[in-house]
Amino acid sequence: MSSKENKGIHIRTIQASKAFEHSERGEYIKADYTGMMPYSLLSMKLDTMREFKKRTVILEGTKKNPIKWKYLSDDLINVKFDNKSLSLEDTKEKFKKDIESLKKSIAILKIKEKLEDEEVKLLKRLHSVLERKEKRLAEINKVPVDNKEWKEMSTGALRTYLYEKGFKLDDVNFVQFARSSSKSRKGEVLFIKKTLLETIQKWTRLGFEFEEKAPLDLVSLRAYESLISSGIQSTVNIDVNSILLVEDLQSTFEIENPIKVIRTGADGKLKVDIEKPKEKDTFTITNDIFDGESLMDYKTFFEGKDYSFMLLRNHMFKSAGFSFDIQQFMRDNCPEGEEFEKWKVKDMYGKSILAKDVKIITTPNSCKFLKFAYLMTDNKSYTGFKKLPSKEQKKAEKAIYNTWKKKAGKIFGVCKYEKESIHTFDNDFEDSVHRLSYQIVNTLIADENGMKELAQEEVDYIAKLNTDNEAFITYLERTSNDNNSNNLYVELYRHNEEFQNTSMFKDFKYTSLNSYKKKIKRGSIHISGADYSIMCSNPLELAKWSIGQFDIKNSEPITLKGDQVYTKLCPFGDEISAFRNPHSSTSCIYNCTNTYNNLIYKYMENISKNIIIVNAIGTLLQETTGGSDFDSDSLLISNNKALLQLTNDSEGMYATVVSGITQKQANSYTYSPEDMARADEKISISGRLIGEVANLGQLAFSIHQHLKIKGEEKKANKVLAQVDKICSLQTCVIDMAKKEFDVKIQSEISSVRNELNKYIQELKKFKLNKNVIHIKYIGKISTKSKLRQVISITKPKFFEYVEAKKITKERKSKRNRKVKVKYDYFNTPMDYLQKIIDDTKSTTSTRTIELKKIMNPEIKRSEANRNQLPELKALAKEVDSYFIELNLKNIEKDELMSNATKATAKFKKKLSKLKINAETIYVLIDDMYNNKRTEKSSKMINLLLYTHREEFCKVFCKK
C-alpha cells in the first residue's frame, strides 16, 4: 500500500446558469471553492501533467510548519444544473429588487447616530455592491429585446448548450469533461480547462476513440470512464498478468414459493403479477452469482492487515476484492500427477497462466472495458457487434482485454475497506451496535409492545443520559465535531463540575437530548448485535469454477446451502435478519442462518466480522434484497432477539417482489454532446427521485399497515400492489446512472401517489379548509385571487421528523408548501415509536446556579477591550448564520462535515490574529449567558476555547 498524502483538490463549484450568464452575458460570478476533486487515480494523473496547476493554502500554522492545509485548483470546475437561466425581463426585475433591497439596508444603517466598526465596513460594502448592480442594470437596459443570449433557458437546454460550446471564465475556456464522481446522480459534471482535455481524456479512455454521432452505449461509457475519478483511500500494486479472468456464472432455478413479478403491460404501465408455480409448469429465476466480485490472494494483499476486503478501481474496472488463500487453494486442487510449479490454468480466452502466479480471480462483470470490445473489430460498429459470430466477439474481447492489460498499469485505487461500526451506547457496551433506519423500522410487523421491546435499549440510554451527567459528557465527547460545540461543554464540565448546575449547561443538555430524541424519531434506533457487512457470494464456487472443477448444472453449492450465511459477527447457529438499503417492504427482509463451514474457514480464515459470505445459488437472495450484486453491496445484519422476533413473525406474509421491467437497448444514444446532455439530464432526474421514491414507499406501506389493522384487507392488498411497484421502481431509479428501462418512471410515481391519495381521503385523516381549493394537480397560482390552489394530504406522524430539514427550509424562506401536509398518527411501527419516545423525559430537576458563580471574581470587566467586543459579537453572528445555513443545505454528510471543518478553520484563523485578554472573553460570555436579552453563541465561545485557551481558562474557577 502507498502511504502518500491523500488530500483531495478543492475546486470551484458554480451553477450552469451562472456559467452561461457570465460567459455569454458578462454577468458577475463569484469564485467559490466548495467543490472537490477527491484523491483518486485521476487526481494522481493530473498531478503529473505540467499544464495542470494547483496551489497550497495554509489553514492553520505557517508555511514552514503547516498544521492544516488544502489544495486549490482553477483548472477544473464542478458545474451544477439546479437553476434555469433568466430571461432579459426577469433579469431586469431581479436587479431592480436587489437594488431596492440594498437601498433599504443602507437607509436603515444611516438612521443610526453612531455606527460600530463592523457596521461602517458593512455600509461601505453595501455601497460598493449597489454601485456595481446599478451600473450593470444600466448596461442590461441597453440590450435589445430580441437578443438570443437573453432568452430563458431550462436546465436541460443549459446542459446541451454548455456541453456543446463550453464557457469562458477568467479568460480561460472550459469544456465538458466527465461526470462528477460523487455527485453524478445529482447531474453535476466536471468541466476542464480546454487545453487539458485531449490529453486527460485520451488517458481516461485508454486511447479508445469513439466515432462522432455513432450509436453506442453512452450511459455505460459515461459511468465507466468516471471510475478512475472515484475517491480512494490508498493504492495497491497489482500485476495484471496475475489476474485469472473466468466466465461469469448464472444460477437458473425454479421457484418453490409464490413471487410477485412487476412488468410493463401492453399499455406501458406497470402491473403486478403473482406467479404461483403450482398453477404453472415452471417459473424460473436467473441470477449472476459472482456479479462484481473478485478473490484476492491473502498472502499477497492482506497478510498483516486488519481488513479483508478492498473496493478496487482502475480504468473501466470496478470490483470488490475479498481475501482468499488462492495459492493454498491451487496447491490443494492441483490435479494428480501434475507438478504444481508447472501446472497451468486457462483464462476465459484460452490463455494459459501458471497456477502459482494467480493472485486474483475475477469475471467479466468487473471488467467494464469489455463492453467496448466492438472497437477492436474491423468496422468498429457497436450495433453490428451483437450480430457477429460468438467466435468473432470473443476475439474482439480478448483483444481489448490485452490492450487494457498493457495500458491500465499496475496501480489500482482502493476506494474503501470494510470497517466496524463505531456506534456504541457507552464504553462498557462491547457488542456491535448499529442504527436501524425508518425504512427498516416501518416495514416490521410490530404492535406497540413489539416496538417498545425493540426500542427499550434506546429508552434506557436516554434515561441514562438524562440522569447521569458523566454519561452525557461521554456522549458529547464521542459526538464532538466541527459542526457542534460539544467540546466547550466537556471542557467546562471537566474544569469545574459545578458547571453542570448552570442554566447554560442545562439548556444545552435539554436541547441536545431533544435533538437526540428527534434522531430516534426518524427511526435511527441503536440496536445491539447489529452491523453492516459486505456481501461475498459463493467464493469457494468461484475458486472451483476458475479451475474447471465446478459444474453449476450438475452440482449442489459446495459450502452454504439455501439461505445459509457465514459471518463472524454473530455466533454460528444463530438466526439472522438482514436488510439492504434502500428498503421498501417487509418482503425485502432476508432471514438466514449463520452456518460454520470448514472450507470457508480454511481459505478465508482471516476475513473480518464485517464480511458476510452468502449463497446466491438457487436462492432469492438478490431479489429479496432489491436487486443486489456483489461489487461491495452490504447488508445490515443482526441477531438481536427483539428484532428477530418481529422479522420471524412476518416471514412468509409477503411474497418476494421480482422486477420484470426490461432494460432498453443500450444503443439509443450516439456519441455527441447533445446525447451526452440528454443522458446526464435523465440521471440528474433519477438523483432527485431516489429520496422521493423511498419516502413514497414508506407512505404506501404505512397506509397498507393502517388499513390491515383496521380490518380492511381488500383495500390493504390494493395498496400493497403500489408498495410492490415502488420496490421495483426503486431499483430502476438507482440504476439509471448506467442503465435505461422500459418504463416511464415519473409517470408511474405520479400514478402511485394518486392511488394513495384516494385511500388517505377515505381514511378521513384531514378536514377540508374553506379557504383552500383541493385539487388533484397543481395549477398556476394567481396572485390576485384570495384562493390558493394546493394539494392537501395527511402523512404519518414520523414524516414530520423525516422531512424536518425540508420543513425548516421552507419556513425560513417563508415559502408556502405546494402540498399542504398534516401529520397524524397511523397504525404503523414508526408512529408507535413516536409515542414511545415522547414518553421519555428530557431533563431532571436539580438546583440551578448562575454561570457567574463559577466565573473568576478577580477578573475586572473594566479591563476588557471595549473596542474589540463589537467585532467579536459581529463575528459570533457570522459564525452562527453560516452554520444555520449549512445545516439547512441538502448535501451529503461528508460534504457537510468538510464544509464545517473548512469554516471552523477560517473562523479560527480570524480569531487567532486577534490578541484577546481574559477580561474581554469574560465580558463576552457574561453578556451572552447572564443577560437574557443578548443572543447566545456557544460556537463562538467554543472557537475562543481553541484559539485563546490560556486566557479562556482564566475566566472560570478551577474545581
Could you characterize the architecture of this molecule?
With 959 residues, this protein is an alpha+beta fold. It has eight domains: 9-85 and 153-204, no CATH class; 88-150; 234-249 and 289-414, no CATH class; 433-526, no CATH class; 528-649, Barwin-like endoglucanases, CATH 2.40.40; 669-762, no CATH class; 772-778 and 786-835, no CATH class; 851-954, no CATH class. Strands 1, 2, 3, 4, 5, 6 and 7 form a seven-stranded mixed sheet that branches. The chain has a seven-stranded mixed sheet with strand order 9-21-16-17-15-20-10. Helix 5 packs antiparallel against helix 21 and helix 21 packs parallel to helix 23. The longest helix is centred in the C-terminal third of the chain and has 37 residues, at 673-709. It is globular.
Name the descriptors:
34 strands; alpha+beta; 31 helices; seven-stranded mixed β-sheet; 18% strand; 959 residues; globular; 8 domains
| Average pLDDT over all residues | 87
> What is the number of helices?
31
List how many beta strands DSSP finds. 34
Spatial extent as radius of gyration: 31 Å
Form type? globular
Biggest sheet record: 7 strands, mixed
Q: What is the share of helical residues?
A: 40-55%
> Terminal Cα separation, in Å?
49 Å
In terms of DSSP E residues, the strand content is 15-25%
Class by helix and strand content?
alpha+beta
Q: Which assembly state applies to the chains in this document?
A: single chain
Task: Kindly give the count of domains.
Answer: 8
Low-confidence stretches: 765-788
